[in-house]
Amino acid sequence: MVLNGEHVMPMTTYVLMQFYVSVQEIVQPQECGRRWKSNTVPERYQNSKKEAQPNSWPWHVGVYSSALGPFPYCGGTLIASTWVLTAAHCIVIALQCSNAPYGQLFSIHDLTGEHLAVTVADHKHTTRQRPAYNVRVKGVIIHPSYPKHASIAGFDIALLQLNRRVKRSSVTEYACLPARGLNLTAGHICKSAGWGLIPNPPNEPHPDYPETLMEVGIQIASTPRCKSNIRGFNEHETLCTDEAQGALCDGDSGGGLHCLPPNESKWVVYGVYSTGTDKCTGGFDEYSLTATKVNWINAVMTANP
Question: What is the pTM of this model?
């Protein structure tokens, strides 16, 4: 359109472009995967889990349910301003026998009368202090294939829609989604964080939950080793890691497997922790691969801005 001799963008085109930019920001934030702090606190626990430096995993969140108590019963990964990636079985636990409409966005509160929330920028969850804060979950969607393949970790994945935006800051960041088809090779070292159970804490006679966020380095295992140790292992939807360097445990479910692809500087959430094979003391851990579900994740976020 020409106005006063100048080319002017039609209003409808401008609105559509603004909508497109808005949707792109929801689906794939322009900035993601940057860690402002990355040094670890000296090891305080056995089994190779270490206390993470506060806010060094700025996309990790604790998932809370009003039905389960004031502790992070699962973990999650902030992937956009209003979206968190977690495990489907974490939602099933919160539903407490209520039936969920799989593959559809729904409200936990409408079904159960209870609330879900996530805690952002937290470190010592037993003494909530700034910069940590809570954000209530508005909606939940479980992967549509989960009920048919609940025994397969590959579909143990869900999305939480928050009721307000979490902005990027010095203590909060979004993890990048991997490129579809990203395939990290066996032996690649990734990281995971969480407040999950410590199976053998020092000076304690029994397993215990840590007060502070822990982190652990984890090695991706080869497909043949995964298949020989995990019944029904599906390499197209699932990855497994060797627990020799450190095992995840109860309370770590839903947390991300965070990896730096070769020659990259941005961290991606390569998997979502589902389950382990040997009671947190060794063996193999299973994750739902996110690279094969990027289209589903983006479709959900685009349809529910």
Answer: 0.86
